[in-house]
Amino acid sequence: xxxxxxxxxxxxxxxxxxxxxxxxxxxxxxxxxxxxxxxxxxxxxxxxxxxxxxxxxxxxxxxxxxxxxxxxxxxxxxxxxxxxxxxxxxxxxxxxxxxxxxxxxxxxxxxxxxxxxxxxxxxxxxxxxxxxxxxxxxxxxxxxxxxxxxxxxxxxxxxxxxxxxxxxxxxxxxxxxxxxxxxxxxxxxxxxxxxxxxxxxxxxxxxxxxxxxxxxxxxxxxxxxxxxxxxxxxxxxxxxxxxxxxxxxxxxxxxxxxxxxxxxxxxxxxxxxxxxxxxxxxxxxxxxxxxxxxxxxxxxxxxxxxxxxxxxxxxxxx
Length: 318
Fold this sequence. Notes:
It is a single chain. About 25% of the residues lie in helices and about 30% in strands. With about 325 residues, it is of the alpha/beta class. The chain has 2 domains: about 5-115 and about 240-315, FAD/NAD(P)-binding domain; about 120-235, FAD/NAD(P)-binding domain. Strands 1, 2, 5, 6, 7, 8 and 19 form a 7-stranded mixed beta sheet that branches. A 5-stranded parallel beta sheet has the order 10-17-11-12-13, covered by helices on one side. Strand 7 (about 95) and strand 8 (about 100-110) form a beta hairpin. Helix 1 (about 15-25) runs parallel beside helix 2 (about 60-75), helix 1 runs parallel beside helix 7 (about 290-315) and helix 5 runs parallel beside helix 6 (about 185-190). About 45% of the residues are buried.
């Protein structure tokens, strides 16, 4: 027999836990499924210095544990499991966990986040949190006064490079082709920033380092085959993010890259009673604090939806 819940939250990053805190305090008894990476992207970050309320910064995994405790304190039921499929064709919504357990939910809050794309070379894992990052806004501050490399050719790479150029002595932008995909205005900003050096027709061969972290990057020119080493202390990936939304395809409206479309100024999706929060619906900001903010919005939207449904039922029965 399917478990019945009022508010089901799929995902356990800042968005999911904040939604859980608000929904629980509203007496909605939310149930949260953590997904395959409990705590989300922040569990791969050592130091979080830009989240309000932590004057000395906080370790990413510790912050997620704090948010989990806060959600549990108000009565959120947290389950370790992965939502493997959904059926939003009727009401209540049906969600399958770990391919076997069915949950019937009056409202669903999608907080599945997004995953940064990586090059797939072993040294990315070796130096994760030791100089390799997929977020310049999150980690750029740690590299002020140093040299760094950025990989990518789109708007994200252009934005990350110009952001880092304000903090770092030099930014090496590694571009695979002989041109960038970024918009003309973003390309212009990169080309007019004196401490950004673009390495055209270049791919990353290996990230170099030692016990202290990243010390350089070995690149290869894909036209000539020539290899060279560049001395850097930070290596930033800006080759895009993939929202973790595949299981919702066919039910939820998304953009061409898979980000959930929400109604402006809300977290409402095209499916009644289904809301999307955090990085699964945010291709622009992708910060812990903005994710938490939309998590709050999602819970309030779900609460409003449930109250309207209840009023409808009372009206029908009177």
